[in-house]
């Protein structure tokens, strides 16, 4: 499967392409002229989120992709995964099988059919609670939950396959993804992300938002996180496809590079929505670090990637527009 030159137009499989990040990435791939087949079991994704122009095959990521790859593909972008931290701690088997075993089966299928490139959706959860900030790719990987542990295990497996079989692979470790791209946005059955939760207050679906701890060693006492626009994130995947090198597995952090506190996020949501958004302080959650901010210098240097949509109010405004459009299309 060795390759060092990416064709200008690629035939690609996107697993999890009916989900949030996967759908945006698929849309950007199609706009760039690539041929895309989306594979998704719709356990958390939505069939109507698959972009026009993509072929859609419903089913298990490894099983379906393994069959499809025999038709000859230039690469795989692997988003399909279980991703709820709390659930991963209560039902670890679901995550070890759903994430790790599925990914190993996919890697084997790629090897069997000679599929040369892989871009993997990894996570900042592989780092656990970092000692320093901003976090670089050389930081120790000490995940504090099963979800992060499974993603780290997959990263190790990819490294092994790249070295042994010539796979050209890139893992992208995300921090907090936010915003929307037109009709493609965030809509989880179980919502755990801050910006969508705050916007639920603005839509009237939630009475108030909780701030978990206001006594952190930060400027306003609330935890600080790095928010990256989903479109910037998707664009990094296109660059990763082009820069993947045979026999190598490169890992890049993707973040805005700027940290925003919980109070800053809530204030940005108030500005973007015009809603007062009541907030109440609750006790800290165990294991929540004070600051998690990415260093994306490696991605900037190696991929030529630069986030373009870094304004927090702008990021929230895109998410809010998507939320309103969904409400208008699906009135209660």
In words, what does this structure look like?
The chain has 332 residues and is of the alpha/beta class. It is 39% helix and 18% strand. It is built from 10 helices and 13 strands. The protein has helices at residues 20-31, 61-68, 85-90, 92-113, 146-165, 194-202, 230-243, 262-273, 297-303, 312-329; strands spanning 11-15, 35-40, 55-58, 75-78, 117-123, 168-174, 176-178, 209-212, 224-229, 249-254, 259-261, 279-282, 291-292. The strands form 3 sheets. It has a 7-stranded parallel sheet, with helices on both faces. Strands 7, 9, 11 and 13 form a 4-stranded mixed sheet that branches. A two-stranded parallel ribbon has the order 8-12. Helix 1 (20-31) links the parallel strand 1 (11-15) and strand 2. Helix 1 (20-31) crosses helix 7, helix 4 runs parallel beside helix 5 (146-165) and helix 6 (194-202) packs parallel to helix 8. The protein is globular. The N and C termini lie far apart (51 Å). The relative contact order is 0.15. The model has no long low-confidence stretch (mean pLDDT 93).
């Amino acid at each position: 499967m060795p390759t060092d030159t990416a064709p200008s137009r690629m035939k690609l499989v996107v697993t999890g392409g009916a989900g949030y990040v996967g759908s945006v990435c698929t849309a950007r791939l199609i706009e760039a002229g690539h041929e895309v087949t989306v594979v998704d079991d719709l356990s958390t994704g939505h069939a109507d989120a698959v972009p026009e122009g993509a072929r859609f095959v419903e089913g298990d990521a490894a099983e379906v992709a393994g069959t499809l790859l025999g038709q000859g593909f230039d690469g795989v972008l692997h988003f399909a995964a279980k991703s709820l931290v709390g659930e991963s701690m209560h039902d670890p088997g679901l995550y070890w099988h759903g994430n790790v075993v599925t990914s190993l089966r996919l890697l084997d299928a790629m090897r069997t059919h000679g599929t040369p490139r892989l871009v993997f959706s990894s996570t900042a959860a592989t780092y656990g609670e970092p000692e320093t900030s901003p976090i670089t790719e050389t930081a120790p990987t000490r995940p504090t939950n099963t979800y992060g542990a499974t993603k780290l295990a997959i990263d190790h497996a990819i490294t092994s396959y790249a070295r042994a079989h010539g796979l050209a692979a890139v893992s992208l470790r995300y921090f907090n993804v936010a915003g929307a791209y037109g009709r493609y946005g965030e809509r989880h059955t179980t919502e755990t992300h801050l910006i969508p939760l705050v916007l639920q207050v603005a839509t009237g679906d939630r009475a108030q938002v909780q701030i978990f701890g206001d006594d952190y060693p930060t400027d306003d006492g609330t935890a600080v996180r790095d928010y990256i626009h989903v479109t910037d994130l998707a664009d990094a995947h296109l660059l990763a496809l082009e820069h993947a090198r045979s026999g190598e597995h490169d890992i890049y952090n993707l973040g805005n590079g700027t940290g925003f506190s919980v109070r800053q996020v809530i204030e940005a949501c108030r500005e973007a929505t015009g809603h007062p958004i009541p907030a109440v302080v609750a006790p800290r959650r165990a294991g929540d670090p004070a600051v998690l901010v990415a260093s994306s210098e490696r991605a900037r240097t190696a991929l030529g990637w630069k986030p373009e949509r870094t304004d927090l109010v702008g990021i929230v405004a895109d998410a809010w527009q998507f939320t309103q459009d969904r409400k208008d299309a699906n009135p209660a």
